[in-house]
Amino acid sequence: MSRDYQRKLNNKYRLPREVYHLTLWQIRDYDRMKDEADAILEESPPPPDGQPKGQKQGDEVASKAARREEYLRKTRAIEDALDLVPPEYRRGVWKSVVYYDPFPIDAARSTYAMWKSRFVYECAYKLGIM
């Protein structure tokens, strides 16, 4: 069985294979996106090197703001989808998706699998992947 297995039977949250895998990797990229969004606030332009440059038409601040907003939009979508999972299952579902950990034994495996399927489905919807 693949680590990125998607239940096929009795799964009303089933996604096309490509969408499912793309969504998983967006979720796994959550920590990096949060770090990048914070790092954009600390960025500064490189020091001038004394060489002549062409006419720069772009607005650097607007470009940074747009990049940061895209990171924040994606992380908010993932957080909103995770909020739909009951609190007692969140950690197990998150660790299963992001770190490949097995589900905890405090509830039935099918319960965790159902919440994982719903979480990934909601992420795909909120991220605009499907």
Describe the structure.
It contains five helices and no strands. It has 130 residues and is mainly α. The chain has one domain. The mean pLDDT is 89.
Largest sheet: none
Q: Compute the average pLDDT.
A: 89
How many beta strands in the DSSP annotation?
0
Helix/strand order: HHHHH
Structural class: mainly alpha
Q: From the alpha carbons, calculate the radius of gyration and give it in angstroms.
A: 19 Å
Assign an overall shape. Answer: elongated
How many discrete domains?
A: 1
Q: How many helix segments?
A: 5
Helix/strand layout:
Elements: H1 17-28, H2 30-42, H3 60-83, H4 87-99, H5 109-127
Features:
mainly alpha, 130 residues, 5 helices, 62% helix, 0% strand, elongated
Describe this structure in a few short sentences:
The protein is built from 5 helices and no strands.
